[in-house]
Amino acid sequence: MAEVTSLCVLIFFGFVAFAVFRWRRRELYRLAAKIPGPVGWPITGNAHMFVSVRSSEDLEQVLRKHAGDIGSGISKLWICSRFLVVLSEPEYIQTLLNHPSAVSKDELIYGQATTFLGRGIITRNGEKWARLRKPAIKVLHPKSIAEFELKMQKRLDELYTVLDTKAKNGGHFDISHYITRFCFDLLVETGAGVKTINELKTNSLNFPTFLEEALEEATLSSISLLTIFNLNPNFKLKKFGYKLTQISENIMRARLNATTSSAQDENKNCLNIMDLATSVGELEKLNFHETSKLANDFIVAGSDTPSKVIAGVLLMIAIHQDVQERMYQEMKDVFGDSDRPAEKKDLEKMKYLEMVLNEGLRHFGPVLTARRIDSDVPVGSYVLPKGSLVILTQYYVSFNSKFWERPYSFYPEHFTPEANQSRPKGAFLPFNAGPRGCPGKLYAMQVLRNTVSAIVRRYHITTEIEYHQVTYKFHLQRSAGNPIIKLARRL
């Protein structure tokens, strides 16, 4: 009898707890009921849709199919008690990104990134994010960008040495590994004032492979059921994070040594990402290890984003020889037979180069972005309730025939002035927008312009791969899985 009574008491209090839980979230349920979406199962909601997800590509396909099935530009999903809203309408995406109540990153999506990257500008929220964001924007000011471009040619000369050997050998090779190492070296010198690291030459860190494995693990961990229920120990990802922080610590030590030597004057006008991390670390009373971790996401984003776009663009123009030839002729018009380094005024004349790079960003841009809603946000005729997780499906928008004449082609004419005017702004946001837009946009675009133009001027690029044979990986952004090309010297 006592056992039955105890069971009844447990059931009663369980029912009361559930009722209180529902009552406190009544406004969320009321607003959620007005948003279209599939009917979920009891308790688990729509979690069954993600059972078959084994990779970031699987996740993207599930969300893309869901967005396409709904067709209204907004839809809802329930993952147990978590309420998700999926946005695939440019107007809604633009509104959300610019709203002050949608600047927080959600732990469900970005929690695993925190394990790997630490609490830097990508994963921070609230006052700590603002504290790092404001000086980061100042550090990445256009004036600083112009100054660090002077160091670009030195790193390009090092890249030429490697690629000249590849061209001389005449075989096909994966360009992505060399471009990632080049971008890493460039970021370390221009972003931290450290000249002594040459990963392109030594490959001592095996940085491209390490980064690829870490990003894949972070992506898969984010969609694990263990993560959803906060039961994921993340041992492998913690190991990756420790190695990344060791890299940041080495760069930090080199930077600190530079500030006490004659190199200080030479590097005083560089981007000084490490100086920024040091100042924030002192303000927050962080130790050396934690201070170094503040630079982790700068290193990953500053190396990964431009390198994947560059490798993807080089593959695409190797496939599309007409595009490559038009780029080369535009450069011949600007430089003639001179092999002098490109200057800012030269790059500004290359309108077709800009179109090609934008088409590359469309193909190899962010897959999705997630935001936590801190207060109700009106979007069109709907209201996104406080506490919901909003997923912006940029990849779906980037390949939607409503906004692109030839979505599944590499077609730079998507970015003629006329095409840009006719397309909603929210349809093309490769660096996001609003308060949490990428602070390194100017840096990334300068790296893209200088590197791609330099390679096309120096080499003719070919490949045996056809457009329909290109494979893709989905991590922070979409990237080419098989950028295998062949180079031949032009000059």
UniProtKB/TrEMBL annotation:
Its main location: endoplasmic reticulum. It is found in: Endoplasmic reticulum membrane; Microsome membrane. It is a peripheral membrane protein. The keyword Lipid metabolism does not apply. It holds the Pfam family p450. InterPro entries: Cyt_P450, Cyt_P450_CS, Cyt_P450_E_grp-I, Cyt_P450_sf, Cytochrome_P450_Monoox. GO terms for molecular function: heme binding; iron ion binding; monooxygenase activity; oxidoreductase activity, acting on paired donors, with incorporation or reduction of molecular oxygen. Transmembrane segments: none annotated. The keyword Endoplasmic reticulum applies. Coiled coil: none annotated. Heme binds at residue 438. Its cofactor is heme. It comes from the Eukaryota. GO terms for cellular component: endoplasmic reticulum membrane. Keywords: Endoplasmic reticulum, Heme, Iron, Membrane, Metal-binding, Microsome, Monooxygenase, Oxidoreductase. Belongs to the cytochrome P450 family. This is Cytochrome P450. It comes from Apolygus lucorum.
